């Protein structure tokens, strides 16, 4: 079966109908496979996003490498395939700026430098990081064909709530010409329970949902995500971890990390 190709103008209309704010800051987490086929492919989808926010808007995508043992080079290092083809297409486009560290985001528009210019953030999604700047700037988050398990803003909410877990991780940077391994603790786990945000946001009428191309899309204010997750984390700091009886390796590692490395 051949599916009809979505025209860029149709995608722009869908984005504006969903509630994408012209002139605003918009961070995109995406699975292009669920959106396509699109006129112009991944670059066509990016053009639709840029047209929807307009010249005063700033478009942002995650752009990290996912390579712990390799230094990050903003001009050449690919975005990890986990982030999808839109993310790995976006940073290569003319006029797009990218953070100079392994937890990079890429951005285009008037606020691009403000969002991408912080030094290495540790843990990766703390307030002085791209995702923290988007929260500060009252940006919107769009999930294109992916769920909240891809929503990095929830990691910011965990850090602002001072969750008690942090698993040992490392990254590699270059300092004075030599590779340096930097160890840190990250609020990481399998992220499946981030899907609870659907329930919390829908209950409060804070999440817009609709179709973009062939994908189901969610649109939320960064500040609403953080606020609602922090309320839940205040009741239960471990709400995002699978309970022990599920035997989820990653969530178990997070639970076992509680108290580790902190006194
Ligand atoms: Zn888990």
Automatic annotation (TrEMBL):
Cell membrane found in the keyword field: no
Record flagged with keyword Transferase: yes
Organism: Sinorhizobium medicae
SUPFAM superfamilies: TTHA0583/YokD-like
Protein name as catalogued: Aminoglycoside N(3)-acetyltransferase
Family: Belongs to the antibiotic N-acetyltransferase family.
InterPro entries: Amioglycoside_AcTrfase, Antibiotic_NAT-like
Domain of life: Bacteria
Pfam families: Antibiotic_NAT
């Amino acid at each position: 079966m051949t599916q009809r190709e979505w025209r860029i103008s149709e995608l722009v209309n869908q984005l504006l109908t969903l509630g994408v704010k012209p002139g605003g800051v918009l961070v995109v987490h995406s699975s292009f496979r669920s959106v396509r086929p699109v006129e112009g492919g991944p670059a066509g989808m990016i053009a639709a996003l840029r047209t929807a926010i307009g010249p005063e808007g700033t478009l942002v995508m995650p752009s990290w490498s996912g390579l712990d043992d390799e230094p990050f080079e903003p001009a050449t290092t690919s975005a990890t395939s986990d982030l999808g083809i839109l993310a790995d297409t976006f940073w290569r486009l003319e006029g797009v700026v990218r953070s100079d560290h392994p937890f990079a985001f890429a951005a285009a528009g008037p606020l691009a430098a403000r969002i991408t210019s912080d030094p290495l953030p540790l843990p990766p999604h703390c307030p002085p990081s791209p995702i923290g700047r988007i929260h500060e700037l009252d940006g919107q988050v769009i999930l294109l064909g992916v769920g909240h398990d891809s929503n990095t803003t929830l990691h910011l909410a965990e850090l602002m709530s001072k969750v008690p877990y942090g698993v040992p991780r490392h990254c590699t940077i270059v300092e004075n010409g030599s590779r340096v391994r930097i160890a840190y603790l990250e609020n990481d786990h399998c992220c499946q329970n981030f899907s609870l945000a659907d329930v919390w946001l829908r209950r409060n009428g804070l999440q817009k949902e609709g179709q973009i191309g062939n994908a189901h899309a969610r649109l939320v204010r960064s500040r609403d995500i953080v606020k609602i997750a922090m309320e839940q984390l205040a009741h239960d700091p471990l709400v995002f971890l699978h309970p022990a009886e599920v035997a989820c390796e990653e969530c178990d590692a997070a639970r076992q990390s509680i108290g580790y490395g902190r006194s």
